[in-house]
Amino acid sequence: MAERSTAAVDVADNSGDEPLAAQADKATTDGAAQSQDAAGKPTPDKGGERKSAESSIATPELHSGHKLARRYRLEECITRLDGFSSWRAVDEKLRRAVGVHLLPADHARARSVLAAARSAALLGDPRFVQVLDAVEENDLVYVVHEWLPDATELTTLLSMGPMEPHAAYQLVDQLAQAMAAAHREGLAHLRLTPGAVLRTSTGQYRIRGLAVNAALRGITAERPQRTDTEAVGALLYAALTQRWPYENDAHGLSGLPKGVGLLPPDQVRAGVHRGLAELAMRALVNDGATASRQEPPCTTPDELAKAIAAMPRIRPPEPTFAAPPDYQRTTYQQGSYGRSAIRPGLAATQPVPAPPAPLETRAGKVLKWGVAALLIAALGLGSWQVANELIQRGRDRVDDPGTSQVDDKKNAGKDTAAGSGKPVAIVGAVDFDPLGQPPSEKPAEIVNSYDGDPGTSWTTNWYASPDFGRLKDGLGIILDLGKVQQVGKVDVTFMGGTTSVELRTAPESALSRPTTSAGFDKVAEGSGTNVALKPGKPVRSRYVLVWLTDLPPSSPGKFQGQVAEIKITS
Question: Which are the contacts of 525, defined by CB distance < 8 A and separation ≥ 6?
Fold first, then answer.
């Protein structure tokens, strides 16, 4: 069968299956008389005999380095289970990572897997990890899909603790809308677990394995819309409580106490957002019962999406910037402006000295009036000199207006562009990736780029070419200056080799940090290991973007940027 070429996104999915270490347990579960549905809830297995027969099918003997269609080179086996295997691979034609599901052409589920993959590929919704190819060739059936190396699984996010209300709201809203769109096209997921959901650094959630993951495991449902809606409700419940809403532990989460039934989220954890808790209960199979009142259950993703839209808006938390490690509050910020700092333990023995008494003597009064007279005289003299200079310039313009105006413009431009040359403090910084894919570009190291120590640095992820493997136009660091200030020059020191860089600034009127590259204006560019970026005209901004556009080699076949130090002067 001919390959179906695509022009899909240049990033991909981490594989939709469990690691090899858990395969023995999984194989036992799949072959037993009990199985789990898409929400992880135990359900009777109606196809036990069929599954036992399928489990005897041998997985094709493939190895790292094997190439499919002279294009897809297998790199690492992620899952080998029930007659099929899942791999991380490289598309050598487009130079990008991909994921591949493989199974024998005579496998009992081969036809349904091909049909599911081709149907999912036609959806073309960016909220789903895209199917790139579905091929039957040389007694093999394989499905090629995107691979998102920088995305974070919801399983990982949930292991860190419950989500704050706005994050949980974004999760359920995006999942409900995505699944509603899929069901309108006749597609169901049926295995929507935390491992099937990925989050990018921009907060976008992407769902992998639409229709395909269920087809690989032979999972079906009489009411697919209800099944997927309950799965979204279970994910919301887990996001609010960090507990799985059933008795059995699943996906790295503890289940509910046995014998008590489905507890409302606010009875499992204190402080849960009431509206989201009720929404989770309406999506789960519990006759629509909520913590506070009776509401009709949401039985389809579309009903759930409408219920979410009807909720009051949940505001996001205020953004925070990380301060440099050696940042210390001044005595003014500590409320002790004009007083000596008192060390702990010495407060009783070393009281703050009182300020000197004002000059109330006769000599003091004479001194005050004398100083005042000198100041008035100085102001008068300065005003006379300024007036005299303005009169002289006016006469010069009358004598030679063209030359005088040209000189004034040149001098004004030089004076303004030069700035004062004073250091501008950087109060915080964040990494900026236009594709917005976690785990971002090493955010924990960002402070190294402006900590005053040239021996420390912030390093990007590695890419297959200097132009970021053709995945993006660039990436960089957004620096927060605390307030709108004059940006006269930005000095950037790189490690590792010559690096191309641009200086971009947010408009002076920007009230918050821009979230897209379109929110910044390019004002300077350069290349080297020590680059001085000077705007061609006066620039005032609070948010400054140091934007890397071309990376140096770090090892054979790998390219990385390494920023050692950034200094800004006005």
Answer: 500, 501, 502, 503, 533, 549
The Cα 324–Cα 191 span in angstroms is 44
CA-closest candidate to residue 524, choices 504, 509, 508:
504
CA 150, CA 134: separation in Å to the nearest integer?
A: 24
Q: What is the CATH number of domain 152-309?
A: 1.10.510.10
Pairing of strands 458-459, 84-91: unpaired
Mapped to the 3 state alphabet, what secondary structure does 393-461 carry?
HHHHHHHCHHHHHHHHHHHHHHHHHHCCCCEECCCEEEEECCCCCCCCCCHHHHHHHCCCCCCCCEECC
Q: What is the CATH code for 423-569?
A: 2.60.120.260
The sign of the dihedral angle between the CA atoms of 191, 194, 198, 202 is: positive
Please, how many CA atoms are within 13 Å of residue 413, restricted to the half-sphere of its CB? 9
Mean of the pLDDT values across residues 517-533?
A: 92
Other CB atoms within a 10 A radius of the CB of residue 416 amount to 12
pLDDT tens across 147-204, in order? 998 899 999 999 999 999 999 999 999 999 999 999 999 999 999 999 999 998 777 9
- Residue of 4, 6, 208 whose CA lies nearest to 94: 6
Helices (H), 400-530: 401-418
Q: Which two tokens stand for residue 44?
A: 């009777």
DSSP output for 276-339: HHHHHHHHSSSTTB-SSSB-----SHHHHHHHHHTSPP-PPPPP--PPPTT----TTTTT-TTS
Q: What is the CA radius of gyration of the chain?
A: 32
C-alpha closest to that of 461 among 442, 433, 438, 436: 442
Confidence of residue 398 (pLDDT cuts 50, 70, 90): very low
Q: Determine whether 330 is exposed, middle or buried from the number of CB atoms within 10 Å of its CB (0-12, 13-18, 19+).
A: exposed
The two tokens of residue 295 are 């509401």
- State the pairing for strand pair 152-153/197-199: antiparallel
CA distance 457 to 450: 9
- Identify which has the larger pLDDT, 372 or 61: 372
CA distances from 234 to 12, 43, 245 (A): 25, 16, 6
Domain ranges of the chain: 20-146, 152-309, 423-569
Angle between helices 224-241 and 301-309 (to 10 degrees): 40
Q: What percent of the chain has pLDDT over 70?
A: 71
Is there a shared CATH topology between the 20-146 domain and the 152-309 domain?
Answer: no
Cut 0.70: pTM above it? no
pLDDT in tens, 4-16: 333 333 333 344 4
How many Å apart are CA 489 and CA 526, to the nearest integer? 12
Are the C-beta atoms of 193 and 38 separated by less than 8 Å? yes
- State the CATH class of domain 20-146: alpha beta
